[in-house]
Amino acid sequence: MNTPRFEYGRSAIEKTIKLLLSLSSPYGLTVRYAIKANPHPEIIKMMNERGVYFDASSSYEAEELLNQGIEGNKISLSSQQSPHNLEVLLNAGVLFTATSLNQLKLFLDCSNHPSVVGVRINPAFGAGHNNRTSTGGTSASFGIWHEYVDEALALAQSEQVTINRLHIHIGSGTDPALWGEVMERSLGVVEKMPDVTVLDIGGGYKIHRYGDEKEADMVEIVAMFGKKLQLFYEKTNRKIALEIEPGTYLIAHAGTLVASVDDIVDTGSGGYTFLRLNTGMNDFLRATLYGSRHLIEVVNESSITKKYVVVGHNCESGDILSPGADNPEEIETRTLKEAKIGDEVRIYDTGAYCASMRAKGYNSFPDAIEMMVE
Ligand SMILES: Cc1ncc(COP(=O)(O)O)c(C=O)c1O
Q1: Which CATH number covers residue 202?
Q2: Mutate to test the pocket of ligand 1, among 16, 20, 55 (most ligand atoms within 8 A of CB)
């Protein structure tokens, strides 16, 4: 079969959907799929048919979901970009979350705006797999800074609009041990917002891709969220419904990028042997961008192993598929089966932020195809 290709396993997707939909929170739990992770139409269809709702990170993503037949009221839009079609999205029933004071004004200026709106707040706390994926704290431009909550409330009130949803997303690949603190801080913000009835605590649930990375235990995390929401109710008499919006957790494990060895070169006895694949940053940018490490396997019958640096075929020295841990500036050797040109190579856990986040068109390479498999 042709390479490079992304294969997305239906049964793996079923498994994560089933797990997340089996969870509950005392005052309701909505699971949203952050489609930026992978907007493949078959995946969106699967999520929708099983009862998962959606998080859109741009007005174009929201539009795409509507085009694919998703009902507007199942879509929540919170985008860095000022939406280009806000009135249309509001007419369709899309829930809007303003991520800046200017976006809140844009919403209030829409003649068809509903009487309720959400806001995304930066709670002065961010944590991702590394700094590139943290979206909270003073060095992140995401959300309304927490000290401006009163300003947001006053602005909404000036137009008789109620802020009923609070959105907080502190990063991607957050250390599982931090979720208690994230909920505490989020509830601290909820306390300052008297009409909030829904807390969307974002995505960012870490998965294990390589080495000693620790996968989030969603059963444990959501149970802990539930306990804290219950305590919040006992303290304030406010019942807060919970929303989570994972991308990675729902889809990353289900994807495999299947490529072939295009060439093998080395830099002599003091250097490295490079396994060059017929894919790279034009299909799979995460390694270059984040220093993200994925399990790589050479598929052949060899019982001999060899150390390789795995690289892509783009004309870029940064097109490294086996970077140092969280450091795209470094290279890492991987012990793999001895390979020959033409061998198939599988890069695992590439269902999220790979096909959707490639350096598309670079060197005029065609995109790796995407296909559903069982
Ligand atoms: C607002 C928002 N929600 C959800 C997600 C999904 O994050 P993840 O794929 O890490 O679960 C992201 C990703 O950056 C995001 O920005």
Answers
A1: 3.20.20.10
A2: 55
Show Cβ contacts of residue 231 under 8 Å, excluding neighbours closer than 6 positions.
none
Last residue of a domain, one of 189, 218, 252: 252
Buried b (16+ CB within 10 A) or exposed e, 166-205: bbbbbbbbbebebbeebbebbbebbeebeebbbbbbbbbb
Atom of ligand 1 nearest to the CA of 128: 10
Task: Check whether residue 244 and residue 260 sit in a common domain.
Answer: no
How much is the pTM?
A: 0.96
Output the average pLDDT for the chain.
Answer: 96
Same domain, 232 and 316: no
Better-scored residue on pLDDT, 33 or 127: 33
Residues with CB under 6 A from ligand 1: 34, 37, 55, 57, 78, 169, 172, 202-205, 245-249, 352
Q: Is residue 132 predicted with pLDDT exceeding 90? A: no
User: Is residue 310's pLDDT more than 80?
Assistant: yes
N- to C-terminal Cα distance for the chain?
16
Q: Which of 57, 97, 207, 218 to mutate to test the pocket of ligand 1 (most atoms within 8 A of CB)?
A: 57
Distance 247 CA to ligand 1 centre (A): 6
